[in-house]
Amino acid sequence: MTPDAKVLIISAIGYKSVEQPVSASGTLKITLLEDLMELNAVVVTGSVNPLKKIESSVAITSFNSKTIQQLAPSSAADLLKHVPGFVVETSGGEVGNNLFSRGIPSAGAYEYVQIQEDGMPVFEDGALQFANADNWLRVDETISRMEALRGGSGSIFATNAPGGIINFITKTGGNDFSGTAKMTTGTSGLFRTDLNVGGALIPDRLFFNVGGFYRTENGVRNPGFKGNDGGQVKMNLKYNLDKGFIKLSYKKLNDRNLFLLPIPLTDKNNPKGIDGFNPNTGTLTSRNFSQLDVPQYGGGYFKRNLEDGVHPIVDAVGAEFKTDLGGGFTLSNNTRYTKINLEYTAIFPGAEPQTAADFAAGYKTSSGADFPVLSPEYTNAGTGAVMNPGLVAKVGYWAIDKQMKNFANNLRFDYKNDKVALSLGYYYSNWTSNQQWNWSNLLVEVSDNPQLLNLVDKSVPEGGNNRSRTYNGVTDISWLTRQAQTKGNLNAVFGNAEIKATDQLTFDIGLRYDMDRYTGYKGNSKFNSQNLDNSTAFNNDFAGTTADNSMTTTEGPYQYWEYDVNRLSGSAAASYKFAEDMAAYFRYSNGFRSPIEEAYFDNADRLDKLKPTIINQFELGYKYQARQFALFANAFYMDLDNLAFTDILLNGKSENKFAKARNYGIELEGQFTAGDFSLTINATLQDPKFNDFSGEGVNNNGNRVRRIPAFYGTIRPAYNLTKNLAIYAELNHFGKKYSDNENVFALPAFDVLNAGVSLKVKRMRFALDASNLTNTIGLTEGNPRVTTAPGSIYYARPILGRFAKLSAAFDF
């Protein structure tokens, strides 16, 4: 060969034509190029025709298992914060977090996106009350890759997903037996074991994969008990047909998680902890009042254990089938049945903390009755010792039980030739959510490891009426009870066509028509003015306390309701490939989100007030990959109508407000490599504002939507010190945002510094990962149950304090 001969360079995933001279000696050198940002990886989410990411006409971010390992996420939300366009709050702990896609405001949860496992929803609706979609999902060694689609075709390939689809794809076995065993320990008392194994039962035909984890830890915010305790098992069998496959899967999740909520702080411009309360590690949840045992009308007690926290038991069974019918036609069907029993128990903040004297002087029951304490005495509810607390507060002991079921089936016929890829599908899903609430309020000392308090009025003689404001530390027994059911029955037909007009130009168009019916009922929650004063079911004389004065019961008659959503969604795109390493696309999409569970409950007698949220989106994307550099830029504009706000306020009612908004912005992803150095960035710049939010005494037109910053992003440099030793640093920036729609309470901008080091020794990988090294007090939300401006001491939810974990993984 001559020195100027050219050869083909093979990329890590797919092929890329690069001119490369052969060495003077005539030796052929084949260089593997790193596939930066996986732009040459094939993505399957939100598409009829799986394409390389650089060729697809959607905004999609993907992470393979190696990247997930390097990012070392502590939860699903912690992984998703690396996706531009997604504002992700990770301050709730391992579960119960919130995701806001492209500036779409909501009360939280995963309201405008669908979370999937292997192309099917973990549960059809990701924003049911106290049932955020990440409650049913854990990131472990069974995950092969994650694909996160923003906007785009989300409304075509899923119901109620105009903000996007997030798909976690599970590993399947191959001919070679392989697996990963991993052990992790951390500064939060963490101990975790992960295992995943896969292989062939019949070579080339029948494959298996089994994996899962067990984890226990107190938590960064240590409540005095195991904050997180449990795990999951996942398994699948895949049988290869001559022209297709059959796959069966099963998942069992049984996990207990501490849910973290706003804590008391001071100095709104530069948040600080109050005396006796560490803002990085403190929590109002405590073992000192983990057991709740309160009397009920008619006899008996309602019992609860706070140490169970958010406790889902999930059983999910799936089956997937695909076959080649010949002539370019294929048939596929994906089905999943999910059953969930959720016991949800957490401490929620109420009104802001007060001095012990002010609290007693202005005491009110939850029903709003004034009972000022003229001569207050506080005692420890456990020991009876007299106490002199500095700050005290009522906190909510919220207990919710949910029984949930979901059956979903996705049937598709596909046709493909050199010029056209067509898909026609029918999606069916039915789901049920039954729930029961029993909420009480407690009186606590505001401090780390808070104590439960009793409060009496010494000016009233012992045995006198209403001498005490508490019953064993409970200020309001069962003040909010609820029994309700919501059902969804979804039928959707969808079609998508991808037309390759030329080798460079491709058109994509999709339509989906939803025929959805939601039904349910709600019990009648009653306040009984007789309370327990004259009850013969208990030995206690409740005339001596006001703790039973706000009690409610839920009973008949039941109110039944029905609501239909029949709506067409559409999306169209054009993609142009300038070269093998450069492409651009333009997409328009129109989608919707049906009213959420709380909206149905609050408006059961006036359903005509409810409307689906309508979202129009325009996107212009650009993708480029060079040998050492990759860039994905996506500009978007969104118009939003019929946004609903349903946060539950201090009085137990929802705010029940509606608005319009618009947003425009740009999402950036980039990666640069130079030898042993690499730099990864993602950033989002946007301007989400209300343009029609007035009435009911408010005028928020022109205000920025709450809890969503105008700018946020991540920069992550990494360096290989040697072939096997690597270090990285990561800086997360979150811009200023507002806690409320009125833009009264601004949450200041903050930065979070993370870092880590990893060492490979043959098949072993050791890693030390540390987060929030500087103990930044970064606020993600204020107190959504209070609509007034905060005082000098206020509630807000900060990110977790400094945390480090050490892991050892063995690949075999």
TrEMBL record:
Subcellular compartments: Cell outer membrane
Start and end residues of each TonB-dependent receptor-like beta-barrel domain: 277-773
Protein name as it appears in the record: TonB-dependent receptor
Main location: membrane
GO cellular component, one term: cell outer membrane
Highest taxon, organism lineage: Bacteria
Similarity section: Belongs to the TonB-dependent receptor family.
This protein's record includes keyword Membrane: yes
MF term (GO), any: siderophore uptake transmembrane transporter activity
Residue span(s) of domain TonB-dependent receptor plug: 53-165
Keyword field: Cell outer membrane, Ion transport, Iron, Iron transport, Membrane, Receptor, Signal, TonB box, Transmembrane, Transmembrane beta strand, Transport
Pfam families assigned to the protein according to its UniProt record, in alphabetical order: Plug, TonB_dep_Rec_b-barrel
Lineage: Bacteria, Pseudomonadati, Bacteroidota, Sphingobacteriia, Sphingobacteriales
Topological type in the membrane: Multi-pass membrane protein
Organism listed in the record: Pedobacter steynii
